[in-house]
Amino acid sequence: MTSQHLYHARRMTADQAVALIPDGAKIATGLAVSFPPALAAALADRVRAGGLRDASIYTMLPPAPSAAPILSPDLADRIRQVSLFHGGIERAADAARGDGPSPSPSIDLLPVQFHQIPRTLTDHIGVDSFITTVSPMDANGCFSLGTDADYALAVARSGARLIVEVNPAMPYVHGDCMIHVSDVTALIENHVSLCQVPALPRNATDDAIGAIIANMVEDGACLQMGIGAVPDAVCAALMGHRHLGIHTELLTPGLVSLIQAGVVDNSAKALHPGQSVFTFAMGDQPLYDFIHDNPAVAAHPVDYVNAPQIIAQNDRVLSVNATIQMDLSGACNSEHVNGRQYSGTGGQLDFVRGAYASKGGRSIIACHSTAAKGKVSRIVPWLDGPVTTPRTDTHIVVTEFGWADMKGKSLAERARALIAIAHPDFCEGLERAAHERRIMM
Questions:
Q1: Is the pTM value of this prediction over 0.85?
Q2: CATH node for 3-189
Q3: In terms of CATH, what superfamily is 204-436?
Q4: What is the mean pLDDT of each run of 10 residues along the chain (441 residues)?
């Protein structure tokens, strides 16, 4: 049977497709942009009608408008909702449950490093159904996973029930991110716009941090950037550099602007020279247009892209990640705010370790010195949440007041270095706390 015959044999409606998922299923969805809105809505309708029982659904950064039906609070007692990394919809659900003695059910969190998610889903959880958005089929009968190779490829090839939403808006991306129609259980067609994430406005503090980091970047360095105003400021400050490379978890509009300007040519990379490598992409329509059928960019699974031993094979890797809090010893809480889960472990520690293991590499944790409009210091005596990056792994810390290298420093030296880049309004209190903690004598 030809690929076209297989395609037409497996094409059906969204309701028919999700009817193939059995009671008790463990369902994973595509990450972020690849979250399939039509399949998710049909799945929600089936759960609400009592047609699917005792199932679990595992999501990561689902777009709120698309995910709202299946992650609705009124379904939380009928389908177990588990997040691999909290975003806006999960934070809203958590806030809605309140703080009373008997709060309503919320979306659970699975703590896991990003590069371990494929194995976690396939080996430990045993996901048996996967729904995701893909590009239209090519002449070889293959769909591209488009913006999201991440854990999708491993789950799609694990033998799980594979149900895809074919969307012409999903870019056809090169790399190790193809699935063949013969592996697909069912497919539907749905032409809708992809979710877009507008750039956050930058301010003077972002630009100050960006300039400090850009001064640390050598020509020929290999970049990993997160999303947000600070990474965008770093990218803007790098426009005078040359021969940079990209090996990143997330491909952003800021990084694309460096490719388009000729600043990034990937000529100095040991792995995939000439190509910008990522595991998922998220941003605006120009980004999606840029990566479509573009051999200069390639998507690969997260257990490859984020594996520290793979990251380290490129020289001069410079990794930039954000944190919510850092204690006086250099430990980072990058996922917990005011007693609630805010995001997740993600790939921060993957790149902190991979970048430092790279020859000439630098791992940077960057943050504003304060939060809550200057009322709260991000450098604190004790963390209020879990340790996302241990103090033993933290390398360079940057705020708008400068930077500090944690490597080779004692606890007392670390505390002094961090206090020196804290906001002046909090330095005296931090010094007092350092003495109380018996870090500084």
A1: yes
A2: 3.40.1080.10
A3: Acetyl-CoA hydrolase/transferase C-terminal domain (3.40.1080.20)
A4: 95 98 98 98 97 97 95 93 95 76 70 98 98 98 98 97 98 98 98 93 96 98 93 96 98 97 98 98 97 98 98 98 97 95 96 98 98 97 97 98 98 98 98 93 76
Identify whether 189 is a catalytic site residue.
no
Q: Is 272 left (phi over 0), alpha (psi -120 to 50) or beta?
A: left
Within the chain, which residue ranges are assigned CATH 3.40.1080.10?
Answer: 3-189
Q: How far is CA 177 from CA 154, 174, 261, in A?
A: 10, 7, 27
Catalytic pick from 90, 165, 249, 335?
A: 249
Q: What are the DSSP calls for 103-167, one per residue?
A: PPP--EE---BGGGHHHIIIIII---EEEEEEPPP-TTSEEE-TTB-TTHHHHHTTT-EEEEEE-
Contacts of 101 (CB under 8 A, 6+ apart): none
* CA distances from residue 422 to 313, 321, 329, 397, 418 in whole angstroms, order as listed: 34, 18, 13, 11, 6
Domain with CATH 3.40.1080.20 in the chain: 204-436
